[in-house]
């Protein structure tokens, strides 16, 4: 891809992010984005069909990164221990970290469909990997687990917790056991 094209796209996305930090999405126009990005509307439309297409494109990039992070860490689910569990959840949080600023803004904008897409991709990736490895899985367990990760991601992004702290806390949460009295 042409470096100028990539640079323009990056500037447009950053302008949109900056605007979303201060305005609700419905009040942002393509003209606002172009003004802040210091580009023409023609340049914007070379990259995106509309503001909604821009938002969807950013969603897709985040979801693709998360989907790639869901690669299996074992060849047999019966061998998933604490270390393997931590490796798996660490991969997911690293993917989120790359887009952390944008995701925080999306959550402030109450873009709940993003959280649903995130939960859906975690679930579908888990099912796909189980089927590829010819492993049996319990769908309600996977739904509970993947939605729990999404809930934790939301919690993490609302705090000032570092990636390393988030990884440790998620690992502890996944491996939590009630103490017997």
Characterize the structure shown.
With 181 residues, the chain is mostly helical. Helices cover 72% and strands 0% of the residues. It contains nine helices and no strands. The chain is elongated, with a radius of gyration of 19 Å.
Key structural traits:
single chain, 9 helices
How do the helices and strands line up, and which of them pair or pack?
Layout: H1 3-20, H2 30-37, H3 41-47, H4 51-69, H5 82-98, H6 100-108, H7 112-132, H8 139-157, H9 163-174
Q: Which percent band covers the strand fraction?
A: under 5%
- How many alpha or pi helices? 9
How helix-rich are the residues, as a percent range? over 70%
User: How would a textbook summarize the main sheet?
Assistant: none
- Rg value: 19 Å
Amino-to-carboxy terminus distance: 62 Å
What low-confidence regions span 5 or more consecutive residues with pLDDT below 50? none
Would you tell me the structural class of the helices and strands? mainly alpha
Assembly classification: single chain
Instruction: Tell me the overall shape.
Output: elongated
In round numbers, the mean pLDDT is 86
* Total E-strand runs: 0
SSE succession: HHHHHHHHH
Short synopsis of the structure:
The chain has 181 residues and is mainly alpha-helical. The protein contains nine helices and no strands.
